[in-house]
Amino acid sequence: MPGRGWGLVYIAALAPDADETSQSQQSKFPVTDVFKYVAVADGRVWMLPDGVKCFAGDLSEEEQQVVWATHFAPDANLFNQKVEGTAWRSKPSWYIVAKNDRTVQPELERFVAKRMGATTYEVESSHVPMLSNPSMVLDVIRTAANAVGTRSATAVK
Questions:
Q1: Cβ neighbours of residue 92 closer than 8 Å, sequence gap 6 or more
Q2: Whole-angstrom distance, CA of residue 101 vs CA of residue 17
Q3: pLDDT (tens digit per residue) in 76-134
Q4: Distance CA 142, CA 157 (A)
Q5: How many C-beta atoms lie closer than 10 Å to residue 28's C-beta?
Q6: C-alpha–C-alpha distance, residues 75 and 92, integer Å
């Protein structure tokens, strides 16, 4: 739509620059616990059942089982792929750091948030604050939408 501005909201995510990969970012920080519980098979990275405690440890046992049963197994080369363009270089950004993340190092999350100049929030959460703290995540998304809206738009992407 003409006249709309865009912003980005990152939730416990990696954000490589043009010359980086997710793996090159992660290799600069200590390996997280979740990697003890992954297996590569059929060209995909599978989280083993015990890995869900690292990935979504602040959810109830029942919710963890749902997360494990429905999780997506990414392509084994995902972390080594470079992506053209770096959206955070040209878009306003917000970032939610998951302070108890055992999937992506919280220090790595803080690093990428600072580098992108993101408005940063921290939450006591595992890698899935959108599940364990949905109200907080929604508040950040609304804050971002309102900020972008004041720049002549009301959408966040």
A1: 5, 7, 8, 119, 144, 147, 148, 151
A2: 22
A3: 999 999 888 899 999 999 999 999 999 999 999 999 999 999 999 999 999 999 999 99
A4: 12
A5: 11
A6: 29
User: Which residue segments constitute the domains of the chain, with CATH numbers given?
Assistant: 8-149 (3.40.50.1820)
List pLDDT tens digits, range 25-66: 999 999 999 999 999 999 999 999 999 999 999 999 999 999
The structure tokens listed for 145 are 């939408």
Q: Which long-range contacts (CB under 8 A, 24 or more apart) does 136-142 make?
A: 136/96, 137/11, 137/96, 140/9, 140/94, 140/96, 141/9, 141/94
d(CA 99, CA 59): 15
Contact 96, 10 (CB under 8 A): yes
Q: Which residues contact 54 (CB under 8 A, 6 or more apart)?
A: 32, 33, 34, 36, 37, 102, 103, 126, 127
DSSP SS3 for 149:
helix
pTM for this entry:
0.89
One-letter amino acid of 73: A
What is the CB-side half-sphere exposure of residue 94 using CA atoms within 13 A? 22
Q: Which DSSP category does 48 fall into?
A: -
